[in-house]
Amino acid sequence: MPFRKSLIAQFRRSLIAQSLFATMLMATSPASAGTLEVGADKAYLSFAEAVKIAQDGDEILIAPGEYYECAIIRQNNLKITGAADGVVLTDRSCQGKAILVIPGNDITIRNLTLQRSRVPDGNGAGIRAEGINLSIEKVRFLDNQNGILSINNPTSTITIRNSEFTRNGVCNPNCAHGIYINSAKLLRIETSKFIGTRQGHHIKSRATQTEIINSTITDGADGTASYLIDISNGGSVLIAGNKMSKGPKAENRSAAIMIGAEGVANPTKFLRIENNSFENLGEYDTMFVNNVTATPAVLGKNQLSGRTLPLKGDGTVDGKAPPTTFPGIKETIKAFLRSALQFADSMKVLILFGVAAGVFGGLLALTGFVLILVRPTLLRNLILRRLQ
Fold first, then answer.
1. Domain ranges in the chain?
2. Which single residue of 18, 122, 295, 358 could bond 268 by disulfide (Cβ 3.0 to 4.6 Å)?
3. Pairing outcome for strands 286-291 and 255-259
């Protein structure tokens, strides 16, 4: 009997151990990602409620419509996606910060409109980025105090693609911007638009490396922005393939791109500004690039128009030292005359052909006139032969 009781006790202990192990395994195993649908006829009517329930790795899929809501995204690896165009989060700001406050890491936001964020300190944002790594894809930021505002996160990468920032920015009492990225590893902007920013900068970056590629940055007729791009503390820079312009109402007319104006705190390995177009639409002089750092800026194949100098500070323009004076009236006339001479050279062959044709025609006319006066009978016989 004691032996039998001992076997039963061992068996029970084994079952308990297996049960505990299974429980621990379930607790430590990641749950499979799920999709939470938000909309009038979906599982969740409220976007904010879906955010509260979501787990790490989930996707929140929002049906088109206006949602007067804000949310705090604490999960990691979460995706928030508009199911189709027309998903608008508007007017509400959480924690006195933003429509979306994001302390979570590795978050992706897609196909939304975030608009009309207002808070008392003047920094109401479409997104307040407080976590590590954020991807923005096809998101519109309209009429916010800040489009995106991030906190210091030196290991974070912020990527913005195919997005639009329109009429963001204000300086009351603090200056807010189209986007304001504080300390970060990398800010990369691709194929996006910044239009009509008010008072602040279109793009303000303190990232260690900033890349702005194939985008449009323009004040427009009514924008009152300061710089188009402000690289406040230096850092490596690639600005390539962009279309840029400063408008007649710009409040800061000194430069389009400013590098290092608030002290060079970041290692600045390279400054490449190439294949961009820039137009100064105002009746004032401006610099395309003002480089305060000691790293030479390399400008190449940029097309500039209006009253603009390419570079102030260290660097080269198309492999040469930059000009140091704005073109005056004499230089403008000389440039016009040079263009006229180039046009004349291209037309030289046509002009010579026209002159030769005129001379030949004149000789024919003169020959006919002489025949009429001197040998009228010969001329009459020639005409009759042609008619036969």
1. 32-328, 343-387
2. 295
3. parallel
| pLDDT 10s digits, 174-221 | 899 999 999 999 999 999 999 999 999 999 999 999 999 999 999 999
CA gap 186, 210 in Å, rounded? 6
Domain 32-328 falls under CATH 3.30.450.20: no
CA distance 331 to 381: 65
CB atoms within 10 A of CB 243: 15
Interval 308-320: pLDDT, tens: 999 999 999 999 9
The secondary structure of residue 263, as a DSSP letter, is: -
3-state helix, strand, coil in the chain (%, to 5): 25, 35, 40
pTM: 0.78
Cα–Cα distance, 259 to 210 (Å, whole number): 11
Token code pair at residue 172: 């009351």
* Spatial distance between the Cα atoms of 114 and 102, rounded to a whole number of angstroms: 14
User: Strand locations in 112-235, DSSP E?
Assistant: 113-115, 125-129, 134-137, 140-142, 146-150, 153-161, 164-166, 170-171, 175-176, 179-181, 184-190, 193-195, 203-205, 209-213, 216-218, 229-231
